Amino acid sequence: MKKNLLTKSASYLILVIASFFSLFPLFWTFSTSIKNRVDTYVLPPKFFNFDPTLRNYTSLLKIRSFPHIYLNSIFVTLMSTVGCLIFGSLAAYAFARRPKFRGRTALDALMIAVRALPAIVIVLPIYKLSSYLGAYDSVWALILLYIGFNIPFAIWLLTSFFQQIPLEIEEAARVDGASNTRTFIQVILPLAAPGLVATGIFVSLLSWNEFLIPIIMAGENAKTLPVFVASFIANKNLDWGPMAAAATVAMVPIVAFTVFIQRWLVTGLSSGAVKD
Amino acid sequence: MGLVTSLSRKQQRLTRPIAHYTLGAWILLTLTILIPLFYGIYISLLNINLASFLPPQFVGLKNYHTALIAPETWSTLKLTVLLMMMGMTIQIPLGIVLALALHQQLRGTRIFRSILITPMLLTPVAVGLTFRFMFDTDLGIINWFLGRFGIEGVNWLGAQFSGLVAIVIVDSWQSIPFVMLLVLAALSAIPVSLFEAAKVDGASGRQIFRNIMLPLITPTILVIVMIKVMDFLKLFDTIFMLTRGGPGNATTTIGLWTYKTGFQFLELSRAAALGVIILIITFPVYLLWRKSTKVQR
Q1: Residue % of chain A over a pLDDT of 90
Q2: A54-269 is classed in which CATH architecture?
Q3: Domain extents for chain B?
Q4: How far is B131 from chain A (nearest CA, A)?
Q5: Residue B161's CB: how many other CB atoms inside 10 A?
Q6: Is B150 left (phi over 0), alpha (psi -120 to 50) or beta?
Q7: A200-236 tens-digit pLDDT
Q8: Are B157 and B183 in contact (CB under 8 A)?
Q9: Which of residues 58-117 of A touch B (CB under 8 A)?
Q10: Which of A14, B11, B22, B223 is most open to solvent, judged by the fewest CB atoms within 10 Å of its CB?
């Protein structure tokens, strides 16, 4: 009994310390983003005793391209997520319901390859190709690429969701004479709605965070938020306030979604390797 | 009679063709992955320089030869492996410790879990930016904190070893939750009866960990090792934001070196050859990973 108490308090201690380290950088980013310069560059650091200001956020908004970039990020994320869900759910249905079909092994191998490959290997030739195709600096090219890079995750996740739907329900639909497509659209998809939402959030996180593809493929027109955020370090004199504001603006939507998606993270990130 | 029809329906269901459902995925992956991959191999046999207006020529394996005799290829590769080992030494044990703490099912576990996984979801570039000013030598909060323990003025991002440590710290901040989640899933899969039986037999907590948990989570740890190897070969955003591979090439990994070769030195063909070399390095891990996912499915 005494020993149990010891493990318990040790566990709590570990969790509390780890939580502190997890949250502190977030707190520090946010607090730096609402500080004036005098409160930013000062030692000892000011944790709470400063006058908050929105100056850094307004200076961010004054950058003429900022709203355009933010909307770009949202648009690219949404469109690529929709694409991943449409084509991903179709493929996942095949994976979930047929132990064997033509091309299954090959597609499986290709999906794992996408997970294993460093993106630079793929993006470099794409850059060269895009100058022939006129796809450089196009949001649609970004959307297409994001779908290609993220669809394996969508397929893995959705396959595991579809597998949880009992076969009997599907069979009932078939007895009534429904075709494959009708069963898929009218029976499977509605039942897998929570799975579609979880997959959608997961895939949109990947798109929202993507950096290597847009930094190579996007110029001024198609620029996304991570590229904008990264451009802050190009200046010799780093201005922490706007930097922190930019980082905050990029991270806020994610923190908001974290709560919804955590149950499915394991399946998503381990690419179907571990059953939840 | 009813049974017979339902059986034949079942057979019908299993034979109804479905391969065309994967057509969209096939087209997308062909366009975005397969074609670029083969085109990349083709480029690596030419001599394209983005700054040159001369028509590219076929040079055979010359780019590979150049890459293999270049000291940078080997030094950046060595650095990648070093980073990989540093990262795994920190991330895997800490991930296991956190998973064990969460596995106790204490009150508030769910809140702790939510808090602990947040870092892994955040935009790596934004995280890098944040740590960039936290690591500042003169006014950064990390050096201020260390200063209170008598460690003064670490030049985090301006020297090789400390730069690597900084990269590992930031990567760990984002990756430990992932290790933790995978180990936690493996721990939850262990039947409770096994622990109870061990307790009845008078096993200590330490014995339970060593003789029950550890063997049962070993496959998961191997999977984590493979994922980490792949992820360190990929690692780009964090290094790009923290040190840009500097000072000089002191913290440049093979992936970042490929990027620099292509987009700073504009030697596209040489970079493509490096890309193929990375591909070849990744291949054994890829095969192992494929095998292990098959086993667990």
Answers
A1: 40
A2: Orthogonal Bundle (1.10)
A3: 71-253+271-296
A4: 8
A5: 9
A6: left
A7: 988 998 999 999 999 999 888 899 999 999 988 876 6
A8: no
A9: 83, 86-88, 90-91, 93-94, 97-98, 101-104, 107, 109-117
A10: B11
